[in-house]
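anyone seen this seq b4? input:
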Amino acid sequence: MDFTALSKIYGTPLYIYDFDVLRENFLAFKNAFAGRKALICYALKANSNLSLLKFLASLGAGADCVSIGEVRRALLAGIAPYKIIFSGVGKRDEEILEALQKGILFINLESSQEMHRVEKIAQSLQIKARVSVRVNPNIDAKTHPYISTGLHENKFGVEIEEAKAMYLYIKSSPHLEAVGIHFHIGSQLCELDPILQASQKIAKLYSSLLALGLEIKFFDVGGGLGISYEGQSTIPLYDYAQGILASLGGYEPTIICEAGRRIVGECGVFLVRVIGEKSNGQKRFVIVDGAMNDLMRPSLYQAIHQATFWGEKRGEESVCDIVGPICESGDYLAKNVLLPPCAQGDLITFANAGAYGFSMSSQYNSRPRVAEVAISAGEHKLIREREEFEELIEKELKCLL
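predicted toks r here
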């Protein structure tokens, strides 16, 4: 990939996505479940660029959404309503209403209170709402505490006994239909065993619900499979699929997998340009035009995105921090990495930035959000224009006192 040429055409900072890798990663999930009923619902929260979604839709992807905005994006990108699920712990009534009106596959319920709200809204529409219950299996996902979701201390889902009570209520309701069961224990998971423990636990609940006469068609195993940011071993998709299928015994529901990071993470890089260098005592800083508002993960999760230098090598490598222009000490993209002496205009890329990069970016310090570019078969195309300052203030100017 010619980063110098791309930087001249599109400027920096810049997100670049390899759609050939994206295709390969998505099809790997489909192939892992080949021969069994399965729906890969791409998790929009990882990266919701419309061109990227349209590309995945062409490959047969569904959508896992956690806001009505994501539902709208999925529909705009051409994902069929019957392939869209709506999750999230804080759905507003108006979001639930719109989702039901759009006829999506189902809504994942996070609490008994939410169940009653969905029922009331469905009653007002004189329809039967298709729902699933998110069950919290109380399994340690062995990941960063900020992205662990399957323990009692996390805000997501309900415990097994409450889930049973909810399903029995749904069975008797004229305005609710239980079509699925759901769990999701966390993100950036690199160990298979916790996922299989959760799957086995929820499969037992699923079996008991079938015995009670509920016709549950979808077994939603969530997502969260990790990628190798720092050389970690990743979960083989064949083992993942076979383990989940084995947990179900002889049952054959449609498996729903909410993959996000594992599909899009490795396909993206974040490209920045060096502004200069400075030293404070023995500490060396390489200052670049990208910042924590553009790539939040290092500051938020202490995440590692491998930095690669693209420029003339002028001397020996030494340890440095790569930092941005934001007025925060936490504004860094990498710490204690080896780089040669850097000059203004040199380029640096950060690997595995396709997931939770642009989607978590902000306009902090009145910094416009960056452009996004897709690469496919050696061709490049702009898929999101760089924001202009005027766009940042447009809505404020309309209300200026």
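The CA atoms of residues 62 and 83 lie 5 Å apart. Confidence is low (pLDDT under 50) at residues 143-151. kinda curious what u guys think
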